[in-house]
Amino acid sequence: MVDTIKALATNPESSTVIKGRRNKHFKLIETTYRSNIVSDYTEKIEELDKNFKYSSNSNCYWSEPEHSLLYGTPIYEAASPSQKIALNHLHWFTKYNYTAETETETVAFNQITSSVFRTIGGYDTVCQELDLETQQEYSHIHAFRKMGLMTAMALIGKKPLQNLQKSHSYKSSLGNNSWVTSQYYALRFLAKNMLKSKRQYYSQYLSQLEEKEKFVVTTPTKGILGRGISTSWQGFFTFNWGVGSPFLACQYYAARMMGNILLKGMEYPLVKYFRKLEKQGEFIPVPTAVSYYHHLDEAYHTTMSKVLSKDMYKDFPKPTAYEKFIANMSIYMVQQASFGGLSGVFPHRYLKDDRFLMTFIYELLQSPLFGMSRREALHWMNQCFCYEHEGFHLAIENHQRLLSDFRRFFNDLGYLWSVNREMRLMALGGDINQALQNNIKTFKQFSRLAVC
Ligand SMILES: [Fe+2]
Ligand SMILES: [Fe+2]
Q: Which listed residue, of 136, 161, 419, 441, carries a Cα 20 to 30 Å from 383's Cα?
C-alpha cells in the first residue's frame, strides 16, 4: 500500500480524482472476479475435453471454411471435400497448439506478477482473480493439447507432429552457452540496480524460482513472449516484471493484452459459427463448443489485462525513464518477434513463412491425407508459398484487422514510443510482395535440403 499512498501524496491530480479512478477500477475488478467465480465455462470445457472422440466429430466443419489451413491456396482449390474438412480441423489444431503455448506463458507470468501485488498489499481481489485465471488456463491447455493431438494423429500421423513438436520445444541456452549466460547476467545486473528502490516488493514466486532454477526464464514455450526473443532477453523481461516495480508488474498486462486481442480475433468467428449451428438446431462439434466456452472464460482475462495495464498502473508513482524503456522494449520485441510478417498458408499467422512451417506442410502433403510423393509435394508448395493467391489476400485482411485492434488499444498509452503506439513494425510486415520475396528465398533453401 506504501506506493499507493505515496502516489496519492505526490500526484499533481487532486486526491478526489485519484480516489474516484481507483474506486472505478476496483469495482470493475471485483465484478469481474465475482462473475468469473460463478461462471461454469471452465467446467464445461473440462467435460467436453474428457468425452472428446475425434471419430464422433470428424465429418463436419468446426468453423467456416475460410478458417482452414492452406485456405485460398492452389492446394485448397484442388482438395477433395473430405480433405477440405481435414484442413479445417488442422487449422483448429495448429491455432490452439499455439494458444496452449501462450497460455503456458500466462500461467508463469500471472504467478510472478500476482506475487508482486500481494507484497504491495491492498490488491487481494486482483491476486485471487489471477490465481483463478491460472487454474482455468491449466484446464484450457489440457483440452487444447489433448484434443488437438488426437485430431492431428488421426489425420496426419506421427511424423509431421514430431517436427512441429521440435519447432515448439524449448531448450534454454542459459547455462550452456557462455555468451548468452553472461549477457543474461549483465542484463539482470542492470535491472537489479535500476530497480533497487522497488526491491521491497520483489516477487516471492520469482525468488523461489531463482533458487530452484538458477535462471528466471520461466517460459519454456514459443508463445508470443517466447517466440523469436533470445533466452537472455526473455529472462531479462521476466526479472523486470517480477523484481518489484508495481508499474512493470502492471505493464506486463499490456504485453498479455496482445495475446488476448490475437486470440479474440481468431476465436470470435468460431463463436459466431457456434451460435449459427445452435440457432439452426444442428450438431455442434466438440471443438467448436470448446472454442465458444473458452472465448467466454477469456473475456474475464481480457478485462483484467485491460484494467491492469490501462488503469491500475496509475495507482503507483509515475514510471522512471528505465521503467518506460523496459515497457517499450517488451512491446517492441513482441511486435517484431510475433507480429512482424504475413503467411500465405495460415490465415491467422502473423509471421513470415519459415523453414519449420515449410517442413510441416511438406510432411502434411506426404502424409496419408494427401499421399503425395516428395516431388509432387515440392511442386505444390512452390505454388502455395511463392505465387500470389487468395490466401495472401485473406492474410492481409486479417493482418489489417488485428493491426487496427492493437492500435486502438495502445493509442492512448502515453508512456509508449510512437513505434509501439502505432504498431509500426507490425504494419511494415503487412506486404504481399515482401512476403513473396521472403518465401521464394526460403523455399529455394528448403527445397535444396529436401531433395538431398
Ligand atoms: Fe485460456
Ligand atoms: Fe487467458
A: 161
Report which of 308, 437, 314, 451 is spatially closest to residue 379, judged by C-alpha positions. Answer: 451
Confidence label for 347 from pLDDT (cuts 50, 70 and 90): confident
296 neighbors 263 (Cβ within 8 angstroms) = no
Rounded to whole angstroms, what are the CA distances from 258 to 102, 306, 406, 439? Answer: 11, 10, 7, 26
Centre of ligand 2 to C-alpha 301, Å, is 5
Q: What is the pLDDT of residues 191-238, one digit of tens each?
A: 766 666 766 677 777 777 776 665 555 555 677 776 777 777 888 888
Question: In this structure, are residues 64 and 273 in contact, taking their beta carbons and an 8 Å threshold?
Answer: yes
Average pLDDT of the residues of the chain: 88
- How confident is the model over 26-70, as pLDDT tens digits? 999 999 999 999 999 999 999 999 999 999 999 999 999 999 999
Whether residue 345 contacts residue 357, with contact meaning beta carbons closer than 8 Å, is answered with: yes
Q: Domain locations in the chain?
A: 2-331
Residue 268 CB neighbours (<10 A): 12
From the CA of 45, the nearest ligand is 1
Whole-model pTM: value is 0.89
Long-range CB pairs of 77-84, under 8 A, 24+ apart, other chains included: 83/369, 83/370
Residue 409: partners with Cβ closer than 8 Å, 6 or more residues away: 257, 261, 306
CA of 124 to the centre of ligand 1 (A): 22
User: From the CA of 417, how far away is ligand 2's center (Å)?
Assistant: 27
CA distance 449 to 436: 20
Alpha-carbon gap, residue 394 to 343, rounded angstroms: 10
Residue 5's pLDDT band (cuts 50, 70, 90): very low
Please identify every residue whose CB atom is under 5 Å from ligand 2, which is an ion: 298, 301
N-term to C-term CA, the chain = 64
Instruction: Write the DSSP string, 214-240.
Output: SS-----S-STTTTTS-HHHHHHHHHH
Residue showing cell 486482483:
126
pLDDT at 122: 92
